[in-house]
């Protein structure tokens, strides 16, 4: 019988690596950040490790995590992430954490 590979991901705030099942997954879908509790939503994701990182993370960290910066021109792409798009997701995460 095959043994399953343990997936590790990095918290975008404190940069610590942990098992994927112990991290909170944030997905960018239709221009807004959503918490993916079941870790099944499609698309690029960012991970946060706990309530301290959820409270302290700067919305600018998501720009790098979701590759929203055009590296040639150093300008953000058409989707922007600011505190207004992060706050609803943050409240939902803090309720589950």
Following the backbone from N to C, one meets helices and strands in this order, namely EEEEEHHEEH
Structural class: alpha+beta
| Major pleated sheet | 3 strands, antiparallel
Strand order of the largest sheet: 4-3-5
Rg is: 14 Å
Overall shape: it is: globular
Distance between the termini: 35 Å
Average pLDDT number: 85
- Strand count: 7
What's the arrangement of secondary structure elements?
Blueprint: E1 8-10, E2 17-19, E3 24-29, E4 32-35, E5 45-48, H1 51-56, H2 60-65, E6 69-70, E7 75-76, H3 83-96
Antiparallel strand pairs: 1-2, 3-4, 3-5, 6-7
Question: How is this structure best described in words?
Answer:
The protein has 97 residues and is an alpha+beta fold. Helices cover 27% and strands 25% of the residues. The protein has 3 helices and 7 strands, in the order βββββααββα. A hairpin with a 2-residue loop joins β3 and β4. The chain starts with 7 loop residues before the first strand and ends with a helix. The model has no long low-confidence stretch (mean pLDDT 85).
Defining key terms:
97 residues; three-stranded antiparallel beta sheet; 7 strands; 27% helix
Describe this structure in a few short sentences.
The protein is α+β, with helices and mostly antiparallel strands.
